[in-house]
TrEMBL record:
Residues 39-58 bind DNA. It holds the Pfam family TetR_C_14. Residues 16-76 form the HTH tetR-type domain. This is Transcriptional regulator, TetR family. The keyword Transcription regulation applies. GO terms for molecular function: DNA-binding transcription factor activity; transcription cis-regulatory region binding. It comes from Cryptosporangium aurantiacum. It comes from the Bacteria.
Length: 209
């Protein structure tokens, strides 16, 4: 059976399995030697695939780990598209992320408990690799824009004429990623990071007692 003739469900399961095995192999190598000192060829060999297959699933070495941080992306954007607007935007964005944190299996088929361990590892790796941290920072800017586009569309405003969508995009990413990195370093887990981060922001916006 050729790849093209395989049922779509089977192809998707095989795609997910290859990506998961490749990421597991990569993370094990990164943990032992650091992100910067491991090559794509070594990851492919450890995962039992060719370099060509590696690049079919991951455009760059950074994408092996950046896709972990993106695993909740479809869930977040879907919630943001449908979250009720009968409340302030601070609550809309907060409820979007807090609701996402309760997901046990993402729309990408990733299990939350496994993602938690892997995401913690990614944050720790980035502390020792400016290249990986630069990749995370660049991807964050893309995520900010994705959120801003949805906010602008739901507000019915021009994203360039109205400052609110991009501000909300930046605030959202800053709150979640900053607190996730903090919890990863202190507690070895990012579970609860969105709720804690949004509560901290809410508290900061309140008048002092």
């Amino acid at each position: 059976m050729t790849e093209a003739s395989k049922p779509a469900g089977l192809r998707e399961r095989q795609r997910q399995a290859i990506r998961a095995d490749t990421r597991t192999a990569a993370l094990e190598l990164f943990e032992k030697r650091g992100f910067d000192d491991v090559s794509v060829a070594e990851i492919a060999a450890e995962a039992g695939i060719s370099e060509r297959t590696f690049f079919r699933h991951f455009p760059t070495k950074e994408d092996v780990v950046l896709t972990l941080l993106e695993s909740y992306g479809p869930d977040i954007l879907s919630r943001l598209e449908t979250e009720s607007l009968d409340k302030p935007w601070l609550e809309v964005l907060g409820d979007t992320y807090i609701g996402m944190a309760g997901v046990e299996v993402t729309m990408e088929g990733e299990f939350a408990t496994e993602l938690d361990r892997a995401i913690v590892q990614v944050f720790r790796l980035a502390q020792r690799s400016t290249r990986l941290q630069a990749g995370i920072d660049a991807r964050m800017r893309v995520w900010q824009d994705d959120i801003a586009q949805i906010v602008a569309r739901r507000l019915g405003v021009d994203i360039d004429a109205d400052p609110r969508p991009r501000i909300w995009g930046a605030v959202t990413i800053a709150v979640v990623t900053t607190n996730s990195a903090r919890r990863a370093a202190l507690h070895g887990s990012v579970i609860g990071a969105p709720a804690e981060g949004w509560q901290a922001l809410t508290d900061l916006l309140q008048p002092p007692p």
